[in-house]
Design a protein that fits this description.
By secondary structure, this protein is an alpha/beta fold. It has one domain. 31% of the residues lie in helices and 20% in strands. It has 9 helices and 13 strands. It has helices spanning 2-20, 53-63, 79-84, 105-115, 140-149, 204-210, 260-270, 274-290, 306-312; strands at 27-28, 41-46, 67-72, 89-93, 119-123, 128-131, 154-161, 184-186, 190-195, 198-203, 217-224, 250-253, 300-302. It has a 9-stranded mixed sheet. A two-stranded antiparallel ribbon has the order 8-13. Strands 9-10 form a two-stranded antiparallel sheet. The longest helix has 19 residues, at 2-20.
Length: 322
């Protein structure tokens, strides 16, 4: 019965999405070279992310990404010029804003169609850093092969909000990584369930401090074919039957990186996010009242690597021998 409900929900929402599909305009900032079969492409959207982007590109290059495909949403902090200078970045712009593109979902779908279906992609935000069992010494092609050997087409990943310890104040260094600065996460306090559209995970510091029930699951490694759409959320892509994989990675989420005050204020004012950026408005109230957001708590633990996340149950071990 659960499978039938998931199948029915997929059929219902797919029909609605295809009926309401409106093409969006994307403008390449230079000539676009087609992907090869060996390419590992990553699609992301950015807006004034110059603080974290060097770390982002460094991390995913180390994992084996060969092409970054990016929509810049009217950045004004040097982000666009920085990305335009990167030889492995395809930079796109659009005449509409993030919110009008259904919080970027239409842009992503258009890019997948442009670069080709029936292949694996990474699909993340610029403050999300993918980890998986063995990531330190096994590149993305090994991960994709392991997923394909299990008949899987997606990698479910809990999103772990990372934040600094109380009083931490370090200067950024190109030798470091974001988890060197925002090194804590909530080690407990999550709820997990299976719903009609996939796995559901909620909790973490934003529930603990702001009573938010954000969906904390994404599928950043995804095989995109003609049946795929994002529907109403990146957290539950269509078709829904693929959203129940038993092999998990994790996304370290750096919403509370060193420049979080500016990013929260910008998001609250811009109202490009869900429900007119309601959750950013709540955080902005805290900033105005206390001058900062200190998320450290008794449940906070320092990040120590992928094996720690496997032991805590956020990720699974991966059999690369199949």
């Amino acid at each position: 019965m659960s499978r039938m409900r998931t199948w029915y929900e997929t059929a219902r929402i797919t029909r609605r999405e295809r009926r309401d599909l409106v093409p969006v305009e994307l403008l390449p900032q230079r000539d676009v070279v087609p992907l090869t079969a060996e390419d590992i492409p990553l699609v992301f959207i950015t807006h004034n992310d110059m603080t974290i982007l060097p770390f982002f590109l460094k991390h995913y290059r180390q994992l084996g990404v060969t092409r970054f495909i990016c929509v810049d949403d009217v950045s004004k902090d040097g982000t666009r010029d920085f990305l335009a200078a990167q030889p492995d970045v395809d930079l796109w712009t659009s005449p509409i804003r993030f919110g009008e593109a259904r919080r970027g979902r239409r842009w992503r779908e258009a890019l997948f169609a442009r670069y080709g279906t029936d292949r694996w992609y990474l699909n993340v935000d610029s403050d999300e850093f993918l980890l998986y069992d063995g990531w330190e010494h096994r590149a993305l092609p090994a991960l994709v092969s392991a997923l394909a050997a299990q008949g899987l087409k997606r990698l479910p990943c809990p999103m772990l909000d990372m934040y600094p310890a109380s009083g931490d104040s370090q200067s950024l260094s190109s030798d470091g990584m974001p988890w060197d600065y925002s090194r804590l996460f909530d080690g407990q306090g999550y709820s997990c369930s299976l719903e009609r559209r996939g796995i559901s995970i909620r909790g973490g510091p934003r529930r603990r401090r702001f009573q938010e029930e954000n969906q904390l699951i994404k599928y950043p490694v995804i095989y995109w074919d003609k049946d795929c759409l994002f529907g109403s959320s990146l957290h539950q892509p269509l078709p829904y039957g693929r959203n129940f994989g038993s092999t998990w990675g994790a996304l370290l989420h750096f919403k509370f990186f060193t420049n979080y005050r500016d990013k929260i204020a910008e998001a609250a004012e811009g109202k490009q996010h869900y429900n007119n950026s309601e959750h950013y408005t709540a955080m902005m109230t805290e900033l105005q009242t206390a001058g900062g957001i200190d998320l450290a708590d008794a449940v906070s633990i320092p990040f120590q690597g992928a094996q720690q996340l496997v032991e805590l149950g956020f990720m699974t071990s991966i059999d690369y021998r199949r």
